[in-house]
Design a protein that fits this description.
The chain has two domains: about 220 residues, no CATH class; about 350 residues, Alkaline Phosphatase, subunit A, CATH 3.40.720. It is about 45% helix and about 10% strand. Strands 1, 2, 3, 4, 5, 6, 7, 8 and 9 form a nine-stranded mixed sheet that branches. It is of the alpha/beta class and about 600 residues long. It is elongated.
């Protein structure tokens, strides 16, 4: 009789995961694109293998409890089952509801990255409004209660069935239940061959959002945690020699200063580098102050962000190193300390360094990365009084920019040249900014606020003697999914503005060369006649002999953009999402392979 409860328990969990698919699609309807009525059925159908796998893992525990119950009938085991089921329900629902919350901003499911962020709970809480957290908590409690009551109703009385008195009969039934539980290994693993269950198994459509919707969020985290953080083999598509040869076609060993126009009035300007949170080129109209600076300075309108999160973006900008699809170099100091760094490159030229940030510099191990780059002088949220930490992330941009201006403007003109890096934060979700309401869209409104801070900073600095020898560099840490409906893998999701301004700029220029965020440091160092060969994956954007291209990565995927075509590859399924050029696909795979091989040696 206990056999039916085994299958009822299995069915309960299977249905639990199946119904999540249409809910996920409904909540994220704006991200799904155009849906046919069949999609509401095909997604759960193709998602079935992963749902079956996770349900098998959970049911296997219940199967073991049933096995023990044949040998030792006790209601204690029923209580153990209730506690176990309640806890798993809580974890699964927290994952699902949290997934619903982050997907619109992240464009992918929760993975092990969330555990890195949980080490800084204040920053996690800052990602959403209070009412969103309250709504999520209410949804969690209500759904947990409903699911748990359903489980109790389905399993009512299983522990009351009597077992045979004879030990031989008990042992036989226990062995049968153990054997049945062992059969769950097949759906868990998904195969008896060397191929095991993975998220790529459920990919079925040329519409990437449908593939993402089919992924079981619990399995996604399990897979993410089981993977090596920097798994070189996962991104090995060819021999290392072949990969190096293909990358060399994009990045020749020789560099040319002769073919680089000099755009600055001095070889040793004071540099103020603004790293702007979530400044997408798709929202260029919300940045009038930055537009004005671009109209008088140097504007790079064809730049692709290297990745999709700040920790990847900062490393891409300051170290010229591409972001990785499923990992972050910044969070591993043992590796990030071996990267080249704009700070160390300029410190060798006599520059004094300072980093300005209004938030927690320990978030994602940023402090260790900055110190490795020579930034011993740093400003963070604790540099400001508590009364000025008004944002959920820390200090609002107008206060941070004002503090930076007040120090920079008073520095002696004959002192050593300086590099100031200012990382903004106010245009981070939940996009809460001080009283300014230019747009109903909260994202655009946050950009307009930070843009006004940029304008105020530049206007004030223009009135000082420091302006003439200063180069202002503006670059986004990453793009943003704007307008609504932009997918996480699309090239326009990674389009960002780069602007050079200030008195050190000779004249207005618009550089329309296709390039990447990682190319910023070599381009800047070339203007200063400083060697940049350590930045092996980046190029001088102004060198007319270089190959125009950009590479970016998204969650377990990557893309290569050239003037001729665009290829976007999903690494989970090793399938090309966009583009149909075998040569470009090979170059893209070679590039990501070489990035991972180099990381392996750090």
């Amino acid at each position: 009789m206990k056999l039916k409860y085994f299958f009822k328990y299995y069915l309960f969990w299977l249905c639990f995961f199946i119904v999540q698919k249409p809910i996920f699609m409904l909540i994220n309807l704006s991200q799904m694109g155009s849906l046919a009525w069949q999609d509401w059925f095909t997604v759960p159908y193709h998602a079935f293998p992963l749902d079956l796998s996770v349900a098998s893992y959970i049911t296997a525990v219940f199967g073991l409890i049933l096995t023990v119950h044949y040998l030792w009938p006790s209601r204690v085991l029923a209580r153990v089952t209730d506690v176990f089921t309640g806890l798993i329900l809580l974890v699964a629902l927290m994952t699902f509801i949290g997934d619903l919350g982050v997907f619109p901003a992240w464009g992918y499911h929760l993975d092990k990255t969330v555990f890195i962020y949980l080490s800084s709970p204040r920053e996690v809480l800052a990602c959403a409004e209070w009412w969103m957290w309250l709504l999520g908590a209410v949804a969690l409690c209500a759904s947990w209660y409903g699911c748990y009551k359903l489980y109790r109703r389905l399993m009512l009385g299983w522990e009351l069935f009597k077992v045979p008195d004879a030990w031989s009969a008990r042992g036989l039934r226990a062995f049968g239940m153990l054997l049945l539980t062992g059969l769950l290994f097949l759906p868990m693993r998904g195969s008896v061959t060397t191929s095991t269950m993975n998220t790529g198994r459920v990919y079925f459509s040329d519409k990437q959002p449908l593939n993402i919707a089919a992924i079981n969020p619990v399995f996604n985290i399990m897979e993410s945690l089981s993977e090596n953080t920097f798994d070189t083999q996962r991104y090995t598509y060819m021999s290392s020699e072949e990969a190096q040869a293909l990358v060399a076609e994009l990045l020749p060993d020789s560099v040319s200063q002769v073919h680089t126009p000099q755009l600055l009035t001095t070889r040793r300007p004071n540099i103020i580098l603004f790293i702007l949170e979530s400044f997408s080129l798709n929202a260029w109209h919300a940045m009038p102050c930055l537009q004005n600076l671009a109209s008088e300075g140097i504007f790079f309108p064809r730049v692709a962000a290297s990745s999709y999160r700040t920790d990847r973006g900062v490393v891409a900008i300051l170290s010229g190193f591409p972001g990785q699809p499923t990992s972050s170099l910044m969070v591993q100091p043992a590796k990030s300390q071996h990267l080249p760094h704009l700070g160390t490159s300029l410190a060798k030229q006599g520059y004094r360094l300072k980093f300005w940030y209004g938030g927690d510099e320990d978030f994602t191990n940023m402090r260790s990365y900055l110190i490795s780059g020579g930034f011993l002088d740093r400003v963070n949220d604790h540099s400001f009084p508590v009364s000025e930490r008004l944002s959920k992330w820390g200090v609002n941009d107008h206060l941070l920019f004002r503090a930076a201006y007040e120090e920079i403007a008073t520095r002696a003109a004959d002192a050593a040249p300086t590099l100031d890096v200012i990382l903004s934060l106010s245009s981070h979700e939940p996009f809460e900014v001080p009283a300014i309401r230019r747009y109903e869209d909260i994202y655009l409104n946050s950009l307009a606020y930070t843009d006004s801070c940029i304008g105020a900073f530049a206007d004030s600095l223009r009135q000082t003697e420091a302006w003439e020898n200063t180069l202002l560099v503006f670059v986004a840490d990453h793009g943003y999914a704007h307008p609504s409906g932009v997918q996480n893998y699309e090239p326009r999701r990674y389009a960002i503005p780069v602007v050079w301004a200030g008195g050190a700029v000779k004249e207005h220029r618009e550089i329309t060369t296709l390039c990447s965020q990682i190319d910023l440091v070599p381009t800047l160092l070339a203007q200063m006649d400083v060697d940049y060969t350590d930045y092996r994956f980046a190029k001088n954007m102004l060198d007319t002999t270089s190959v125009p291209f950009a590479f970016y990565s998204f969650n377990d995927g990557f893309a290569l953009l050239t003037d001729q075509d665009t290829v976007v590859i999903d690494a989970k399924s090793n399938r090309t999402i966009l583009g149909n050029n075998p040569s470009s696909e090979q170059h893209a795979r070679a590039f990501v392979q070489r990035v991972m091989e180099v990381i392996d040696t750090l």
